[in-house]
Amino acid sequence: MSIARERIDRLQTLAASAAADGDDDLAREYVSLARRIAERNRLRFPREFERSTCDRCDRYHRPGRNARVRLRDGHVVVTCDCGTQHRYPYD
């Protein structure tokens, strides 16, 4: 495992804990940093991290608090507070 991948995984953990503690600005900073590391090293963002963040505002989603999750025919729709929708199929 590369150093960049390990750092992205660590930032994912930090972003989740910061969002759980209610520190949205710090969580957003962690998500932004992880996204830059992935882009710089030409790495794919981990699936679970990609699905729990907003592409537009780099917010870490907390369903019911800053994101709405709806189930539709064969896919999940996650709507961020900024209005961005992210769709993905059931796993």
What does this structure look like?
The chain is an alpha+beta fold. It has 3 helices and 3 strands, in the order αααβββ. A 3-stranded antiparallel beta sheet has the order 1-2-3, with no helix packed on it. Strand 1 and strand 2 form a beta hairpin. The chain is globular, with a radius of gyration of 13 Å. The model has no long low-confidence stretch (mean pLDDT 95).
Can you give keywords for this protein?
91 residues, alpha+beta, 3-stranded antiparallel β-sheet, 3 helices, 3 strands, 43% helix, globular
Gist of the model:
This protein has 91 residues and is α+β, with helices and mostly antiparallel strands. Helices cover 43% and strands 19% of the residues. α1 runs antiparallel to α2.
Mean pLDDT: 95
The main β sheet shows up as: 3 strands, antiparallel
Work out the strand percent.
15-25%
Order of helices and strands: HHHEEE
Topology:
Layout: H1 3-20, H2 24-40, H3 47-50, E1 67-72, E2 75-80, E3 85-89
Helix pairs in contact: 1-2
